[in-house]
């Protein structure tokens, strides 16, 4: 008989104490050593090492096998695998291969292959294998090590139970490692009570402590490890020895040093290692446990456990038993029941058959919908499933999109709405989804947004969907895609007669007319002209009023009526009507030189646009607010509004025709600040194709002309200014308050010596100004422009006695503003422009009393006594340009 060395226990523990994955395993190694020592007294032993995935079971078994063999015990090791669970006696034959001669082993293999039934109809192989082991034990102590017993084939498990029942007086130690208790795998009859000839010693391995984790890393590197790296290692691996060792080995193989900067890489590697190991474990689990694992992967933490298990379809185990298997393997935790590692969900679902995966997602979504699970969770489930073909699916996705929009999560909202389009939707609901989707997509995919809107506007007319139709038309016109809007709205107006309510059809026609006014003068696709808005019989029709106000303002007709119509259009800023007519009304008030009311209107449009997520109209409101600020001499405010407009909707997502208007605003602001070089940089930036096919191009030409004139390029300036005039005249936009192109062109003509042509332009501007009712204001602005642009002697002198409403041009002496603060200067500039204190307060969003106090301080600093003297001595900068 082989002799067993007595230093077995000491050697096992001393070697294990310094090895990485065996840190802290002294108690279990000592127990194993005692069981091996007992073999010398012919006392059999049974040691079961359990614990979750990557806790280091294999390392412990390896040390037991190594030290047992060194001590003189015959040792055989079998490692079970998921791919061998169907091979009869696979693990048992691995053990016998190390104990028998090759000839005998071949004979046993042949016999075992014959016993290929689960019932064990052929009892001779099982008995023969037991006899072989017992015969070997008579030659001396014997240690049988079986790793990953949870994957052992059923024949081996029955053989192991039979062997354990026959070990009385035999010097045999059986050591197993598995996820759960040994009794689970051997069956209900394996009670391991006093009647059994062998006593079961079961040890549950725990993860490393924090100190053991640091010791492992220090031992592996030969020096103390960076604290940040050590903390990341402990967190990412959950201090599981096997996971920690394999992750660290991969980093070392890749040449990554254990420093703080490598912590993110360690986390990534640990997840990869754990995912690979988890998938191997999952493949070998019972079907019911795999089913529950898949349910957890699909449901996440959105379903209660009781609700989630209702999706599982048990075949053998109860849900509680299946959960126990997942917990003991380390793939799930109990409080509450869920996956131990969220990223495992992707791994589990990736290896799941596509059809089964889709079916599970659909069943989970349907169950969640019936039981009140949140719409966001249902949307996530449906996003991973094929179309359900049921109305509830589309409704749930739309609800989820609305929730995500309120939370500011536009990306997930877009995903839900796109998925909703794959489900059955009524015509009205589909139009609503497309319109909502367009509002969200415009900030990153404007072309896709426009496509959605065209789908709404080209669909067969439906009386129930007209609110979405109006919203879509408003969005498309607000985006600046006026050529397309004009085409589709014109066609829809023709088709919608008798279907869409008359009031809605009239509003739709107004939006089409706005697109016609702002779009290209010569569209690529000929379309019958849309009728101009008529004077609304119903004063409560804001769309008609706003559009007509803009039409009259651009033509320079009936200034008092323009003000009335614009105020009607802006009277109800919080209803659900289209925003573009209100924007046009605000612009019309600017033409009336009513800046306080115009800015209030633009602010109201901006607020409503933001509420509706209409980024394009919000950006336009900010753009025209910037232009108004520049006109009032507030260059810094204009710069801020232009910047905010670009943040509201990135300029790269603006329609090309609006980009031209934005660039014109930048150029105007820089020139007002005296920064000609930056204005030139803005003008030189490349424009998107099609920028010239809209009204905004005329204003860009105007700023280009002013800039060239300031740089001394007189002929180039005149060409740009006259082209600006040609475009505006062709549109019948004659009001000189829209653009001062005639004045600046006259300056260029004077520099070129053509005084007659200059006088002709000035005469035209004066006649138009008189027709508009703003001749004195325009005369004053012209004189300021002449003085600033260096035109020499004025063609027409300013009024001998300026009215109280119109300030005189400021001379070279700038001492009038010395010592004023910026708030005081703002109030002064508005006051000399003719605004009442109340209007100034509204424009600056301050109290009327605050305006009065600032004016009083300004009077004191300037050494004057009242507004009359202020008007006589002050002219706000930039007003004449």
UniProtKB/TrEMBL annotation:
A matching Pfam family: GerE
SMART domains, per database record: HTH_LUXR
Region: Disordered, residue numbers: 794-823
Domain HTH luxR-type: 813-878
Keywords from the UniProt entry: ATP-binding, Nucleotide-binding
InterPro entries: AAA_16, P-loop_NTPase, Sig_transdc_resp-reg_C-effctor, Tscrpt_reg_LuxR_C, WH-like_DNA-bd_sf
Name of protein: AAA family ATPase
Lineage: Bacteria, Bacillati, Actinomycetota, Actinomycetes, Pseudonocardiales
């Amino acid at each position: 008989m082989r002799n067993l060395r007595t230093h077995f226990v000491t050697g096992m523990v001393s070697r294990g104490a310094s090895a990485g994955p065996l840190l802290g395993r002294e108690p279990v190694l000592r127990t194993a050593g005692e069981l091996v020592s007992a073999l010398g007294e012919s006392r059999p032993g049974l040691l079961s090492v359990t614990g979750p995935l990557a806790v280091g079971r294999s390392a412990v078994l390896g040390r037991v096998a190594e030290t047992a063999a060194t001590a003189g015990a015959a040792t055989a090791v079998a490692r079970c695998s998921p791919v061998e669970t169907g091979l009869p006696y696979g693990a048992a034959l691995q053990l016998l291969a190390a104990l028998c001669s090759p000839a005998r082993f071949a004979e046993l293999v042949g016999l075992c292959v014959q016993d290929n039934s689960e019932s064990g109809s052929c009892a001779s192989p099982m008995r023969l294998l037991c006899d072989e082991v017992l015969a070997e034990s008579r030659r001396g102590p014997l240690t049988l090590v079986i790793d990953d017993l949870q994957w052992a084939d059923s024949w081996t498990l029955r053989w192991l139970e039979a062997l354990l029942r026959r070990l009385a007086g035999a010097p045999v130690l059986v050591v197993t490692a598995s996820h759960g208790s040994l009794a689970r795998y051997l069956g209900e009859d394996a009670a391991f009570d006093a009647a059994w000839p062998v006593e079961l010693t079961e040890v549950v391995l725990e993860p490393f402590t924090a100190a053991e984790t640091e010791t492992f890393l220090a031992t592996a590197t030969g020096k103390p490890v960076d604290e940040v790296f050590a903390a990341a290692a402990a967190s990412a691996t959950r201090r599981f020895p096997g996971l920690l060792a394999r992750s660290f080995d991969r980093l070392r193989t890749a040449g990554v040093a254990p420093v703080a900067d490598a912590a993110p890489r360690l986390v990534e590697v640990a997840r990869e290692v754990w995912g690979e190991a988890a998938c191997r474990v999952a493949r070998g689990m019972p079907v019911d446990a795999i089913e529950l694992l898949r349910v957890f992967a699909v449901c996440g933490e959105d379903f209660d456990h009781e609700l989630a298990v209702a999706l599982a379809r048990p075949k053998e185990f109860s849900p509680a038993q299946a959960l126990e298997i997942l917990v003991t393997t380390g793939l799930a935790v109990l409080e509450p029941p869920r996956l131990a590692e969220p990223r495992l969900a992707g791994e589990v679902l990736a290896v799941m058959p596509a059809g089964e995966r889709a079916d599970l997602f659909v069943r989970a979504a349907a169950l969640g919908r019936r039981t009140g699970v949140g719409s966001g969770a249902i949307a996530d489930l449906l996003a991973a499933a094929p179309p359900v073909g049921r109305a509830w699916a589309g409704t749930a996705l739309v609800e989820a999109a609305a929730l995500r929009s309120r939370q500011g999560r536009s990306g997930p909202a877009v995903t839900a709405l796109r998925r909703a389009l794959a489900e059955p939707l009524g015509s009205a609901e589909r139009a609503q989804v497309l319109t909502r989707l367009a509002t969200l997509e415009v900030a990153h995919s404007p072309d896709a947004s426009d496509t959605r809107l065209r789908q709404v506007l080209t669909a067969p007319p439906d009386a129930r969907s007209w609110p979405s139709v109006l919203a879509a038309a408003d969005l498309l016109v607000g985006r600046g895609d006026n050529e397309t809007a004009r085409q589709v709205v014109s066609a829809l107006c023709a088709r919608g007669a008798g279907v869409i309510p008359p009031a809605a059809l009239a509003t739709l026609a107004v939006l089409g007319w706005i697109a016609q006014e702002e779009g290209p003068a010569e569209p690529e696709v000929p379309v019958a002209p849309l009728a101009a808005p008529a004077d609304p019989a119903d004063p409560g029709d804001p769309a008609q009023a706003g559009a007509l106000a803009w039409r009259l303002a651009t033509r320079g007709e009936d200034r008092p009526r323009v003000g009335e119509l614009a105020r009607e259009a802006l009277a109800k800023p919080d209803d659900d009507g289209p925003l573009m007519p209100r924007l046009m009304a605000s612009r019309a008030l600017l033409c009336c030189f009513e800046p306080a009311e115009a800015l209030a209107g633009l602010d109201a449009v901006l607020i409503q646009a933001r509420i509706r997520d209409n980024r394009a109209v919000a950006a336009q409101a900010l753009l025209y607010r910037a232009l108004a600020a520049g006109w009032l001499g507030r260059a810094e405010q204009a710069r801020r509004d232009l910047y905010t407009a670009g943040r509201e909707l990135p300029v790269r997502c603006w329609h090309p025709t609006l980009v031209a208007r934005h660039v014109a605003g930048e150029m105007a602001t820089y020139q007002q600040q005296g920064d000609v070089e930056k204005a030139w940089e803005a003008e030189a930036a490349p424009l998107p194709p099609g920028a010239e096919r809209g009204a905004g191009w005329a204003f860009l030409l105007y700023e280009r002309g002013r800039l060239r004139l300031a740089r001394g390029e007189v002929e180039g300036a005149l060409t740009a200014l006259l082209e600006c005039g040609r475009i505006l005249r062709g549109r019948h936009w004659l009001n000189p308050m829209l653009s001062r192109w005639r004045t600046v062109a006259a300056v260029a003509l004077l520099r070129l010596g053509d005084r007659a042509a200059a006088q002709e332009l000035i005469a035209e501007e004066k006649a138009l100004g008189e027709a508009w009712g703003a001749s004195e204001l325009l005369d004053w602005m012209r004189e300021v422009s002449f003085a600033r642009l260096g035109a020499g002697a004025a063609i027409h002198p300013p009024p001998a006695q300026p009215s109280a409403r119109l300030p005189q041009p400021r001379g070279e002496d700038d001492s009038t503003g010395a010592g004023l603060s910026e708030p005081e200067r703002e109030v002064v500039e508005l006051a000399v422009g003719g605004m009442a204190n109340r209007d100034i307060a509204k424009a600056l969003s301050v109290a009327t009393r605050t305006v009065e106090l600032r004016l009083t301080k300004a009077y004191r600093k300037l050494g004057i006594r009242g507004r009359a003297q202020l008007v006589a001595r002050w002219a706000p900068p930039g007003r004449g340009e």
